[in-house]
Amino acid sequence: MQSAFNYLNEEQQQQVEQAVVDAEQQTSCEIVPVIATSSGRYDRPEDVVGLWLTIITALCLWFFFPRNGGQAGDWGGMPVIVELFLAAILLALAFILGAIAGSRIGWLRRLFTPRLQMQDEVAARAREIFFDKRIHHTEGGTGILIYISLFEHMAVALADQSVIDKLGQPFLDQICRKLTTGLHAGNPTATLCEIILEIGSQASTPLPRASDDQNELHDALVLID
């Protein structure tokens, strides 16, 4: 699974941070880009993949190693209790391997995780970061969060109410669509920089930077593993 710390190299991170600096030269908005490895724990895929691998193992045992009732004059073969014990061990190992695969293989986790659940987890995590990173607590109420969650392949744009009043929710929705399109195309650095600079440009008139404006939040790309 892609880690937030490996998603962009150091030079690319610096480009994004410079874009934040340039954008905030035009507006009083405090822009905070965040990249997270994942937004939720998602236990269900581990159980589902483990169960399916256990079922497949059981069917293979039944098909390839059928139990014969025994024939007269034949005392070969293992005792039933030993066969059951070995089968139980194989089934347990199958479940454990399936659970490990379900927890570590990204496409398997996404396959067995409902998309609605991922959307809810990403939205909840974005709101949590919006408050935890004090983006919501700027003096002028001009915080903007650009949140990218790699595992879910989803992004969220959140802003204080004063920003929404000036720029409108459709603008944030448009920003989010551009962000996901660019990320899907495989251009994370250029897309992030373009989005950040567009926010600075669009907000420069309704929310201009004052001569005594103070930079309340660090101009950094936040990475969360």
How would you characterize the overall build of this protein?
This protein is an alpha/beta fold and 225 residues long. Helices cover 57% and strands 10% of the residues. It has nine helices and four strands; from the N terminus they run ααβααααββαααβ. The chain has helices spanning 4-7, 10-24, 44-64, 80-104, 106-111, 115-132, 161-167, 169-184, 188-203, and strands spanning 30-36, 143-149, 154-159, 222-224. A four-stranded mixed sheet has the order 3-2-1-4, with helices on both faces. Helix 2 (10-24) runs parallel beside helix 9 (188-203), helix 3 (44-64) runs antiparallel to helix 4 (80-104) and helix 8 (169-184) packs antiparallel against helix 9. The radius of gyration is 26 Å and the shape is elongated.
Count of helical segments?
A: 9
Task: Assign the structural class, choosing from mainly alpha, mainly beta, alpha/beta, alpha+beta, or little secondary structure.
Answer: alpha/beta
Indicate the percent of residues in helices.
55-70%
Percentage of residues in strands? 5-15%
Overall mean pLDDT: 89
Anisotropy-based shape:
elongated
SSE string, helices as H and strands as E? HHEHHHHEEHHHE
The largest sheet, given as strand count, sense and whether it forms a barrel, is: 4 strands, mixed
Strand order of the largest sheet: 3-2-1-4
Low-confidence stretches: none
Number of strands: 4
